[in-house]
Amino acid sequence: MVLHINSSVLISDVQKEFNSLFPFLKLEFFHNRSFARSDFSASQLIPYNKKLGENKNNIGETDIEISEDMKVSELESLFKDRFSLAVQVFRKSGNVWLETTMTDNWTLQHQNNHGKEISTGRTNKDESIDYDLNRDND
Q1: Tens digit of pLDDT for each residue in 61-75?
Q2: In percent, how much of the chain has pLDDT > 70?
Q3: How would you label 97-123 residue by residue, b for 16+ Cβ within 10 Å and e otherwise?
Q4: Looking at residue 47, what DSSP letter applies?
Q5: What is the DSSP string of 48-89?
Q6: Are the C-beta atoms of 61 and 5 separated by less than 8 Å?
Q7: What confidence category does residue 37 fall into, taking pLDDT thresholds of 50, 70 and 90?
Q8: Terminal Cα distance for the chain, rounded
Q9: Adjacent-strand bridge partners of 3
Q10: In what helix (H) or strand (E) does residue 98 lie, and over which residues does it extend?
């Protein structure tokens, strides 16, 4: 997937395009100058009807490639490093959206598949992914 980024693109357009490839994930944008996890709060959320360039002077026009094997942490860092935008990936879990902070080392596809499994109870037939949240904490 290639996202076209410029200062006049609406946040909702980026979210929709991302969600079309990963229906059990969503991107949220925050007013978070420190990029500290503790500062990602509902009060810092940028409304979906705002343009990416509002309050930012350094967003040029560029395309970014997002692949299924990209890690969540890589995607979040990409927005931070290239556009100074604080982005957090959320995964659907039933009727709620959860931050992926504990599993930022998972790929986007892995996160999406896990969201699908949790939300619908269905998995891909050929999928043999281990969803043990504690496996990388050793």
Answers
A1: 889 999 999 999 999
A2: 79
A3: beebeebbebbbbbbbbbbbbebeeee
A4: P
A5: TTSBTTTT-S----EEEE--TTSBHHHHHHHHHHHH--EEEE
A6: yes
A7: low
A8: 34
A9: 64
A10: strand 96-99
* Residue of 20, 72, 29, 31 whose CA lies nearest to 48: 29
Distance CA 85, CA 104 (A): 17
Q: What is the dihedral of CA 112, 118, 120, 125, to 10 degrees?
A: 70
Per-residue pLDDT band at 34 (split at 50, 70, 90) = low
Looking at this protein, which amino acid is placed at residue 43? Answer: S
What six digits make up the tokens of 3?
């996202």
Q: Is the dihedral of CA 30, 84, 1, 127 positive or negative?
A: negative
Q: Which helix (H) or strand (E) holds 14?
A: helix 11-21
Q: Is the pTM value of this prediction over 0.90? A: no
Instruction: Check if the beta carbon of residue 137 is closer than 8 Å to that of residue 102.
Output: no
Q: Tell me, what amino acid is at 42?
A: A
Residue partners of 64: CB distance under 8 A and separation at least 6: 2, 3, 5, 78, 82
